[in-house]
């Protein structure tokens, strides 16, 4: 009995372990792919940006247009990320913790920006807020600019960064379940106390990762 057990274990390992050349081939393919499509383009960007030295780089940063672009990017990210933070936590909480009518529809809405081109999203806002759009005449009558202005850029940024925080938190909250929250409520904790002292500590790393991804997409 004891002699047959190691033999069966060895046979199982032999059946599930690939040959060394397979591992090396897969690793080589992955490294070549990363080198060609990630490392080389980044190296080319930095090489071209610094071709004339750091002096030319700093001189370009001092241009008013450059500072205007940086300021606009920071404004859009500063507005979009907190909005998506609130929505992402709320949507993840609702989807992961509760069963309700329209849950599948809400999940589809969360994933929608992943499947819609930013160009199509921009066209959508033009059709809604443009001069010939649904609200265009009213906005023009009140001298309110949405399209080709800061509000339009913020709206587009919110749309493209919409799913990142929610999509990081939904599977995490679903895996954790409701046991700790229910125990806290049974012990007399309020909803806010349960969120701040139980839920938030459990999701903090996923939340931080989602915020980083959201901010990177907003500034990119």
Shape: extended
Q: Whole-number average pLDDT? A: 84
Cα radius of gyration in angstroms:
25 Å
Fill in the CATH topology of the largest domain: MetI-like fold
Measured between the Cα atoms of the first and last residue, the distance is 62 Å
Most strands sheet = none
Share of residues in helices: over 70%
**Unreliable spans:** none
Instruction: Tell me the total number of β-strands.
Output: 0
How many structural domains? 2
Count helical runs.
11
> What proportion strand?
under 5%
Helix/sheet category: mainly alpha
CATH architecture of the largest domain: Orthogonal Bundle
- Name of the CATH superfamily of the largest domain: MetI-like
- Text of the CATH class of the largest domain: Mainly Alpha
SSE string: HHHHHHHHHHH
Explain what this protein looks like in three dimensions.
The chain has helices spanning 4-16, 20-49, 54-61, 64-97, 103-115, 118-129, 136-141, 150-160, 164-176, 179-186, 191-219. It is extended and about 65 Å long. 80% of the residues lie in helices and 0% in strands. The mean pLDDT is 84. The chain has 11 helices and no strands. By secondary structure, it is mainly α. The termini are far apart. The chain has 2 domains: 21-62; 65-219, MetI-like fold (Orthogonal Bundle).
What is the compact description of this entry?
The chain has 220 residues and is an all-alpha fold. Helices cover 80% and strands 0% of the residues.
